[in-house]
Amino acid sequence: KNLSKRNKQIMEKNGNNRKLRVCVATCNRADYSKLAPIMFGIKTEPEFFELDVVVLGSHLIDDYGNTYRMIEQDDFDINTRLHTIVRGEDEAAMVESVGLALVKLPDVLNRLKPDIMIVHGDRFDALALATSAALMNIRILHIEGGEVSGTIDDSIRHAITKLAHYHVCCTRSAEQHLISMCEDHDRILLAGCPSYDKLLSAKNKDYMSIIRMWLGDDVKSKDYIVALQHPVTTDIKHSIKMFELTLDALISFNKRTLVLFPNIDAGSKEMVRVMRKKGIEHHPNFRAVKHVPFDQFIQLVAHAGCMIGNSSCGVREVGAFGTPVINLGTRQIGRETGENVLHVRDADTQDKILQALHLQFGKQYPCSKIYGDGNAVPRILKFLKSIDLQEPLQKKFCFPPVKENISQDIDHILETLSALAVDLGGTNLRVAIVSMKGEIVKKYTQFNPKTYEERINLILQMCVEAAAEAVKLNCRILGVGISTGGRVNPREGIVLHSTKLIQEWNSVDLRTPLSDTLHLPVWVDNDGNCAALAERKFGQGKGLENFVTLITGTGIGGGIIHQHELIHGSSFCAAELGHLVVSLDGPDCSCGSHGCIEAYASGMALQREAKKLHDEDLLLVEGMSVPKDEAVGALHLIQAAKLGNAKAQSILRTAGTALGLGVVNILHTMNPSLVILSGVLASHYIHIVKDIIRQQALSSVQDVDVVVSDLVDPALLGAASMVLDYTTRRIY
């Protein structure tokens, strides 16, 4: 309400509720895919905005598809067409094109007299637009500033940033870069990429007709490649050679491939010659096209087996679908990328590119929201409405020292980077919003249903509700981490085999339904491993290279950190520490064996022994009672031991001894620098375990410290750490 009131005051201050006159200038097919969602948004609010569209650059060239037509097909009135491209496709032609645009733009801007011009990205045409608007005292809103790629585009992008008055960035890193470049905090909006508004809602059941139209009737989904490669203007010769190697690799790989022509940068003419020299336009496995409408293009990349090249589209937009991407060379070297992107920095041999194709083709990754959450346009429109035209036009720079807090969004509220954490226990299902510092912002608890259908539906429902609540709490959710009992394949996000406590939970794909519903990346791991991850990030294992965590609860589990990394094992069965055998003739274990630590020291084992004592009237001592409607459990055994029950004390000592022998085996096998006992029973076992180490362990490991965890919710914190600690870069 306050923002709406402020917007109204600004409009009145701007003059009799005068509409904001916005000029959107688009230069090529790529920038139009980012600008179009904003243009549609502006068009839906005619009471606030007047829209003028200026088209220039490669939009108006036949060799590049005459892509201005798609703007007309979207029902936008093109106010001005400017032919600004000097043909030649070399460095000199790029400079001459900038000069020609600078000559023609003043007349257009004088005639339109916009209040603000929206400029996108880092193309040489965009530099001419920003230069003209700045010199003619027209406010500039720059989209996608602050990003880092790896070519001359970086220099152009940052030059436009210095000319622009307002900035809309897509990622937190880009926002930080803008602040480091001394831009005014209050004029930066972290909105996300506008194209993601369309990508994350793009559902086309008839995608097969689009695939057949562009690639042929015999092509299946996930069985073709999309290739899009542009020249690198700072190293044209090498980029042409790399394109040649790419085509050779694609020919050898022998899959149907859609090849899009490169952009108009210097070197593109030579790349087209390479295509024709290799007969790509007539090769039966290839379809070479100048342009694909954006709506159809996103369906093609969404259902491709792989995308290859060096286009920013591959490292940005394609992540929304989890399609595998091979990023070649240095053109996008500084971009933030999702786990779907495999980088081939030195693409200097055909074999290296071919090997990357074999590694990536046909995989499916979680969708990535690094560059947006689908709500960029509403934020941008709100930002536009907040612009006060009476403010001085001269922009201010915030020179160091920079404020400690980073720039705010349009509501002037700092969002907290957070994760959704899910803990699937035998009794309860818990979901929490966890901040980067390990603070549980909000937690939700429900009883864990007994059937698969009820359980998966409840997980989805709780996560959707938590994600919606996160917006109100100013938490930006980066992903979902799930902790569950049993054996888990974390690479695929599948529960392979569950514990007996969670029924109907074998061969369950958790990643796909959650990722599809929330449009977020999802990680899944065993609860013992999650406890170790929690200690590594938030607990007593922080900064340690090697340590082991043992969970003492209903069962006995654990996790092993070796050289700072979690150990999963060849069949994802590492750290099943509860099933270390400490006696050849011990009690039966739930795993089918006998003499395991879990058969002695778990909550279930103590409950078993407590019931035996209770049935023989040997459990209760003076000062102790068990209500008739209450089941006898491990806590009653512990209470009896504290009150002097000798038999209860003996059982606890035996359980602690079994656990201690297991720890000794761990010390002799792994030689960690620390052992952390976690869970409700840890404090009752710690002293016995230390005694057994002194009696049984080799002298060389007796100095290893054994401590009780001080974390309250290790499963939730560990699930969150999978999200918060995940690195988005992969190097090949």
UniProtKB/TrEMBL annotation:
An N-acyl-D-mannosamine binds at R487, T499, D527, E576, H579, E598. Pathway: Amino-sugar metabolism; N-acetylneuraminate biosynthesis. Zn(2+) binds at H579, C589, C591, C596. GO terms for cellular component: cytosol. Residues 47-385 form the UDP-N-acetylglucosamine 2-epimerase domain. Keywords: Allosteric enzyme, ATP-binding, Cytoplasm, Hydrolase, Kinase, Metal-binding, Multifunctional enzyme, Nucleotide-binding, Phosphoprotein, Transferase, Zinc. GO terms for biological process: UDP-N-acetylglucosamine metabolic process. Transmembrane segments: none annotated. Homodimer. Homotetramer. Homohexamer. The hexameric form exhibits both enzyme activities, whereas the dimeric form only catalyzes the phosphorylation of N-acyl-D-mannosamine. This is Bifunctional UDP-N-acetylglucosamine 2-epimerase/N-acetylmannosamine kinase.
